[in-house]
Protein 1
Amino acid sequence: MDYKKYIAEKLQVEGVSVEEIYESIALPPNTEMGDYALPCFKFAKVLRKSPVMIAEALKASFATDDVVSEVSAVNGYLNFKINKDGLVQQTLEKIFAEGERYGASGEGEGKAVCIDYSSINIAKPFHIGHLSTTVLGGALYRIMNFLGYKAIGINHLGDYGTQFGKLISAYKRWGVREEIEKGGIRALNELYVRFHREAEEHPEYEDEARAYFKRIEEKDEECLELFHWFKELTLKDVQKIYELLDIHFDSYNGESFFSDKMGPIVAELKEKGLLIESRGAQVVDLEEYGMTPCMILKSDGTSLYATRDMAAAQYRKDNYDFYKCLYVVAYQQNLHFKQFFKVLELMGKEWAKDLVHVAYGMVSLEEGTMSTRKGNVVFLEDVIAKCIEKAYTIIDQKNPNLENKEDAAKKVGVGAVIFGALYNSKIKDIVFSYDKVLNFEGETSVYVQYTCARANSVLQKGGVPTKYEIPELSTVEIDLVKALADFPQTVKDAAEKYEPSYIARFAVDVAQKFNKFYFDCKILSAEEEKTRTFRLALTAATLQTLKNAFALLGIGIPDKM
């Protein structure tokens, strides 16, 4: 049951909608006061009464029943206590009935959500800086599908620009095909770095690179063959990482795909009188909206990111008719997205309001910052491999006789990388620490996975009961059930705020509550059969919920650790 909805619909507040009441109901900081609380301060202006008087009046009019067992008014807050047996029964029944679908819904049915994420650059390293966009976008993709939306994962490849001219120049000067085939993206990156190093002494190389890129645009056979080869090598390498991280895409249409689709956008801008000339370039003036001009065409007539992104947005609307189109891109690009969103709005694109920049903070290692051009980058593949290796060492020390240690280490190591990027609010910068993410005791994925292994061990010994009765419940058991009951709302909130950290934090909270239950309440050795059976059912419900939460984040759970 959605208790907030039940309370909101039963309350009658003159001049205030059920939706407003629903949004105002919150969880009180002190659970002894109640399970839900309604602050009445925001109703004071409408009702022209003090919050204290409003709370008292609402208390008097709210009849308790078998769902809400007690109502109290305290200092302008209306507190509600839920019938605990009813809450426990409904929650466990729902979890067992829905299983892997517990927390899912059909709210997004018939609505498409485009998610532009990861969006790697061809022939450039897939480094630690790409971690957030990749796992954040992947989590949102799963969450949206889980809620019934049709999620469309888009890898908007960076496959357009003079860097390809630079690579061709470098390859023709220093490259050996067999070595590049063998070395893949790392070998291509070495060529790219060498080009920039050599170009400092030979600036004419830059002119040569621009000429090669122009030949790509002109469909020169030799240059196009090299361009497609670079692209093929890159995708082959990064696919290994996507498989490790459980990342999937429905489209790999990158910048080059839209190179012939910008004409209609530019023509429409001209037709609507939005383009003006500035120092030979064509721009849209956005001073009125507190922004610098949005450049559409350079003085030489070539396009820019904004032009290509507008063409891509139009293509996505035409082909997917999206409900929302999300761009999972670092906050450094805030201005870029504000600019081209505004230009589309000025063009009269009513759907421009459905474009969302899901901004996130930067990820760095404790060693410091990186630069592709200078060659000091940390490959994401190496970070994942190191985490798996460290996880194996820890597991081997803790449980040397464990079967399938390699599989467990893979799930723990990969999970640590993903969780390390998703646990905090997406907008925060992250300094990635191997020791921190692999801590068995901290607020980490390893802690949650170990909790699941503990629950699984209990169930292997005691079995999963098909029938159970509710005994007299302890506060610890009630707290755990209440946490489990919050999962569907947590998933919904994560989708609305584009914030998978809600689910990551939920998992840690449930794991902490389960471990308190595990240590405070006898499960297998409970004296009464009724109590033992119920506690096994609660253990099974907890394990299922944690598995569902981690599945949305893209993290596997080993049976044993």
Note: The radius of gyration is 28 Å.
Protein 2
Amino acid sequence: MVDSISEMEVRILSYGDDSKGCGFVRHTMRCSSSEDLQKLRGSGSPLVYVISMDCLPRLRNFSPPIIDRGIKNKHKGLSEYLMGTREDRIPLIDGNYGSSRQLERSIRTFIINAKNRREDRLFLIGIKNAIFDKLWHDAGESFSKGRRRQDRPYPDIDSADEMASVLLRDLWQRCNVPPELERRFVGSSWKVDLVRRFIILAAGSDTPVLILGDTGTGKEIVARSIHEIGRKGTPFKALNCGGIPDNLFESELFGYKKGSFTGALEDRAGLWEEAKGGTLFLDEIGDLPLLQQVKILRALEDRKIRRLGETTYRPVETRVIAASNRDLSSMTKMGQFREDLYYRLRGIPIHTPALKDHPDDIPLLAEHFWEKITTDIRGVRMQHSPKLSRRVLDELRAYRWPGNARELKMVLNNLYTICGPKEIKERDLRSVFYLQGQDWTTGSFHLSERGIDLLRGDCWRHLRRADDVIRTMRYELTPILGSRKIDNKALASARANLDFHLGELEILCQEHMLFHTDKTYSAVLGFRDRLRDFHDLFQSDIHRAKKYWNETLAADFEAVLTVIFREAERVLGTR
């Protein structure tokens, strides 16, 4: 060990609470010991420094000593190497990362684990020079002569939601939400903001979108927002699949030739053709009969349609967005919805949350609707229009809103119609509920027999979503990993989809209680960790990924799906 060495200039990228999860922050300093590195350190939280490989040999000789943890195995996490070492030394490791994305995901997971173990030390990770140089360039001059940059705001996420923040922060860096979207899809909770970020993500892609959510949660607003941001100026055509007779469905969607049936007096283009270059919105697609589902699947796969009465096909480049308030995943298992169509539509799934899942947004939504209700057709606020008091807003927040935002808007409309411009009291709101036949006393949620039953329903739906995400990944990965010849275009698409679906699973895993038992939660969590390892391999080395899939992960998929299925059965059996 060398006790002292000549001073060296070190470029450092920090990642931790000092950067608020915003990414990497640049530092440049001259130092000759590990004590010099500690000068940049904050307090109370773990801090990770990333350095280039050409600095590692000199840093290993620093005094006081740095603990050298060698080269990281790609199948192991940072925690296995860096935590549990002596408190008075700085752990250092050769990260052995193939990309900056793998590095950042690994660091985020490590910081979460370190916080849970109340670690507040400094950790050093060496990476390839080319990756470091790219990150250094991308980070920009965050620190310059001691001046700190202004951090970008992030959602207020509780520590229990830390895993959700991994996906959220990825979306934060990739997707900037315009103010008009915030005014259109209202809410300040991270669940609402996640939907807005997915809208931006979907708008920049041609991948089919499937919007799932209860009635009244704003599915059509999401669809129209995706279209207006991504394809503004092109046609937007909507079809309510549950509101059109079977005998008219095909002519409405695909069009017809003159004389093809009684009443066909002229050639007519269908909605799919009219939406060419734009967006076709298939609302309530779960209501479609199986026969009609086949026709939609064929048009999606072939990217061409045929009018009734014609023999030739017409190419159509149309973005398809589908929506449903039904559990399509369960319907596929019961043979009520085609599995191949489901996975074809589920390119980017967006779940619009029920109001009961983000109650803190209810006052904000209520004020948004109330302003519209009390504004005339000229856009002028009506004179003497009352405001909603804090007590009224609190009463609205306490109700569970089975009809979601649509029901909230209806109640507020009725409240204004009945009360007029006078001051609104809590008793007025209760009167509206009574006149509409709603039992206000059951609005508040207590852990009664009814409340326990509702909680079981939430657990069952959560387990079904976990099952759905995992099955989707297996469905998309199996053809790629089972093929001898690698299709580069299909591989690129599968990599992007896996990245997205792993984010979905991260979101689900932060809802610990909704997995019903600790045993099931632990099984899913362990699977998620192994899936992360596979994800890193799949992004960088398809041949090693295939080997890992065949030796480990294929069996893991089957095992975790069995655990989830049995837990869902137990939830139903305890009702």
Note: Residues 199-353 form a domain with the Rossmann fold fold (CATH 3.40.50.300).
